[in-house]
């Protein structure tokens, strides 16, 4: 008896909530999921940026909710708004972060910087899952964390980003085990430099040691360039879609071959 193999990343009839979906990789993932037929709700903290994102998406199946996912109450309110719009949540893509949280050497960054990175690189991924879980349990679905390859490979200037990236990788594995009985898959993407994003352009234009670090990294890519946000989005689409129905607990590095190994 042969298994039925899905032949397309068809998401018609599904509802996806993308946190941090108003810019960068999150916005690129929104475009990919919309193209696959999903109803997509993007969220972010800035209403103006959210409206700009909807204009860029220019799709009748796209909508916006506004709030700070690092706040558990606001995360629950946003889930209620998604349910009011569509009556269900099938897929959660947890992305985003504060635009000003650039790399910094451990001894030079402020205490406040550490606190903010923790809020906007870890808590803003954790609380949306807790808020959406009761609805994901109803029919099964998927959670996808957008993380960093600095969680697998020690990177100068990314002490906290790397530590929290490693925490997200372990969170992915543990939740995949806990949620398996509810038919909820949990996976992650670990990213390196990603071109085609505002954050990348800003870092390259800083003119300090961060720009120099990025320039050196760009020259090291085996294929001659870093991944584009839209290329990362295709990997996200695969992990969300039925094509990855037997993939859970995994974190895939989308790094253009810049580094190998890790855990």
Would you give an account of this structure?
By secondary structure, the chain is α/β, with parallel strands linked by helices. The protein has one domain (15-252): Rossmann fold. It contains 8 helices and 7 strands; from the N terminus they run βαβαβαβαβαβαααβ. The protein has helices at residues 24-35, 47-57, 72-86, 111-139, 159-179, 198-204, 209-220, 229-240, and strands spanning 15-19, 39-44, 62-66, 91-94, 141-148, 184-191, 251-254. β4 (91-94), α4 (111-139) and β5 form a beta-alpha-beta unit.
Query: N-to-C SSE series?
Result: EHEHEHEHEHEHHHE
Question: What is the mean predicted local confidence, pLDDT?
Answer: 89
Percent range of helical residues: 40-55%
CATH homologous superfamily title: NAD(P)-binding Rossmann-like Domain
Write down the overall geometry.
Answer: globular
**What distance separates the N and C termini?**
35 Å
Number of domains: 1
- How is the biggest beta sheet arranged? 7 strands, parallel
* Radius of gyration of CA atoms, rounded to a whole number: 18 Å
Strand order of the largest sheet: 3-2-1-4-5-6-7
**Strand percentage, roughly?**
15-25%
CATH class: Alpha Beta
Comma- or semicolon-separated keywords:
single chain, 263 residues, alpha/beta, Rossmann fold, 7 strands
Question: TL;DR?
Answer:
The chain is of the alpha/beta class. Helices cover 45% and strands 15% of the residues.
Helices, strands, pairings?
Layout: E1 15-19, H1 24-35, E2 39-44, H2 47-57, E3 62-66, H3 72-86, E4 91-94, H4 111-139, E5 141-148, H5 159-179, E6 184-191, H6 198-204, H7 209-220, H8 229-240, E7 251-254
Parallel strand pairs: 1-2, 1-4, 2-3, 4-5, 5-6, 6-7
